[in-house]
TrEMBL record:
It holds the Pfam family HTH_3. This is Helix-turn-helix transcriptional regulator. It comes from the Bacteria. PROSITE patterns: HTH_CROC1. InterPro entries: Cro/C1-type_HTH, Lambda_DNA-bd_dom_sf, TPR-like_helical_dom_sf. SMART domains: HTH_XRE (SM00530). Residues 9-64 form the HTH cro/C1-type domain.
């Protein structure tokens, strides 16, 4: 039986780990409308819709729309047999292969290709804020493979090659971030190392700073190398000083504060936080588009993490409250800061307050698709088991156990 357009869309979507709702957000469809599309509803005959789907899934339009059903079925089955989704070769315009054809030796890469990669980086960061990293790992991995394919097989000018290397560094950092959020730390570490190398090759201080900022995060979150985290944060600030804008430099300084908090050096934490505020208020330099989502509230939450680690729970609470209040546009991110606020309350032995925060947002807490955050909630629940005499703790643990 021929493979229909709807079935093809469904198989590709599922192979990259994307839900119907996430695909709908990218093509401006509701989830039920995507379901109809995958069941060969009327929209599969609209080339404008198929163009949007092809862009969202990063596949050639020809896979979704060809002139005859017989030709469509042959191309689609060859597409899936060739493993193009995992290798991302089919994402390259004109690179569609069959199992019997030779691999292309060169693809011309231009400014439009680099711009598409940059748009994809922004989209990954945006989706991570909305949905969490667990659902994005395969998508980000495929995007990295696509960029690597362009670098390895493409032909381009020196200018485009430099821009492509910078874009590859940022894509690797984005992939590292979603893998970190998904609790896949070893893969995140590898992506960050590759990103730093690519950024250095491109002499891109902004991309290098971003990679080192995230590598710093891994160092002190693991708890074993906080001094290395400080060094990476300092390197990020040096790299950002030449080209980086206010938000990038502020983020690097806040990560330094967090690393110092893991060491327990309060004076260094306060100095780094003050430096972050000064950087954020300046107008010098250029911030990449992926940092457009970094409001005051986000920095407040990160500063709250540093003070929580120092044991200054009252100060941490005020920062976490600012983060919760300022992230209403991103419900998933707001839940993240509520989880951290609850964690801070429990560490301060304000058990009732911590449990109330979790219970009031319980549905969001248990549904957030982030292994990193779910691990934090599991830790809170384990801590609360010694407080079952407190009614709020019993209520939360009862719902947690029954979930």
């Amino acid at each position: 039986m021929p493979m229909t357009t709807g079935e093809t869309i469904r198989r590709i979507r599922k192979s990259v780990g994307m839900t119907q709702g996430e695909l709908g957000a990218l093509i401006y469809f509701t989830q039920p409308a995507v379901s109809q599309l995958e069941h060969d509803g009327p929209a599969v005959y609209d080339v404008r819709v198929l163009r949007r789907v092809a862009r969202a899934l990063q596949v050639p339009l020809a896979i979704l729309m060809v002139e005859s059903d017989e030709e469509a079925d042959v191309n689609r089955r060859q597409f899936f047999r060739s493993g193009t989704l995992s290798a991302s070769a089919a994402m390259i315009p004109g690179a569609l292969q069959t199992a019997d054809t030779a691999r292309p030796t060169s693809v011309r890469v231009g400014a439009a290709d680099v711009e598409r990669i940059t748009d994809s980086i922004d989209r990954i960061h945006e989706l991570q804020l909305m949905a969490g990293g667990d659902r994005l790992c395969e998508i980000a991995t495929n995007e990295v493979r696509y960029v690597e394919q362009l670098l390895d097989l493409g032909s381009y000018t020196d200018k485009i090659g430099t821009a492509l290397s910078s874009a590859s560094a940022e894509m690797m950092t984005a992939a590292g971030w979603v893998h970190y959020d998904a609790g896949r730390w070893n893969e995140a570490k590898r992506y960050y190392a590759d990103a730093a190398q690519a950024a250095t090759a491109a002499d891109d201080g902004i991309a290098a700073a971003h990679a080192w900022i995230n590598s710093c995060l891994l160092s002190y979150r693991e708890g074993s190398r906080p001094k290395e985290g400080v060094q990476l944060a300092e390197a990020a600030q040096l790299a950002a000083r030449r080209q980086g804008g206010p938000k990038l430099r502020a983020l690097a300084a806040v990560r330094e504060a967090e690393a110092y908090s893991a060491i327990g050096d309060r004076s260094a934490v306060v100095a780094a936080v003050n430096r972050a505020h000064r950087a954020y208020e300046s107008t010098k330099g250029h911030d990449p588009s992926y940092l457009a989502h970094l409001p005051d509230a986000q920095l407040s939450g990160l500063i709250g993490l540093a003070f929580m680690r120092l044991g200054e729970h009252q100060t941490a609470t005020s920062y976490f409250q600012a983060a919760v209040d300022g992230t209403a546009a991103y419900p998933r991110e707001r839940i993240a800061w509520k989880i951290r606020m609850a964690q801070n309350f429990v560490r301060a032995r304000e058990i009732a307050d911590g449990c109330t925060v979790l219970t009031d947002s319980f549905d969001g807490v248990i549904q957030v698709a982030s292994t990193r955050l779910q691990t934090a909630v599991v830790g809170i629940a384990d801590e609360l088991r010694q407080y079952t005499a407190i009614p709020e703790a019993r209520e939360f643990l009862g719902r947690w156990t029954a979930r």
